[in-house]
Amino acid sequence: MKKSELKRYTEANRAAWNEVIPKHQQAAKDKWDKLFFQPGFVRLDHLEIELLQQVGIKDKTVIHLCCNNGVELLSLKNLGADECVGIDISDEAIKEASERAAKCRINCQFVRSDVYEIDAEYKDRFDIVYISVGCLGWMPDLKLFFEKAAALLRKDGLIFIHEIHPFVDMLPDDDGELADSLRIVGSYFKTEPYIEQGGLDYVGNSKYPATTTQYWFVHTMSSILMSLINNRINVEHFSEYTTALSPNHRRFEEAQAGIPLSYILIGRKQNTG
User: Based on the structure, what is the number of domains in the chain?
Assistant: First the structure.
């Protein structure tokens, strides 16, 4: 993908997130501040915590790509991680995350940056690159994304991904009116992004006159795996779950539909000598 096209997508999504973050803050900022005032508070799925402890999170250096308001990175710090850095394209999200870390006295650094433009000072610096729910769908160029991610890792470093399963992109959102909620409404192999001009407030569910356009990219599981492989990341763990990470697809979990809604993937950077 050309750099100009890549930038067009990422800057549009940056504007969309800057527009919606104040809405998210109205609904949940005080709640997160109060929770993280509690020493050792962790806001992570128990399956995720178990695997993080298995691979070893204590005393590890961690960078969280697409960290949003910082609650996952603060949780990793409270699980015993050492240096913790969060990267997000949204100015408003980074501001909130930085303020919360300072207010709750949790030592994490938050940096406003496009993932594709992360500063060279972070190269070869981290034990774990952490990627959480909703990150990959905002990425126009998956191979380049994982190239950037792999470059952040030290020798034998890990990429830890806890994400929405690509299967979900074929299904309607919870706020739809389809009588058959399991009807396929999108192609698994869709190559063009979904273009949305509505609001992004999945936290408070407020309706607001959005002035921005968002671009959401569909990535198959094979494209995710091959992007890792092509960037010399060996997959060491892959598990799928019926747990919904997206607030737009909770009814599938509640209905016990038996379909993959999320996954955890762990890959290790190859030793190239």
Answer: 1
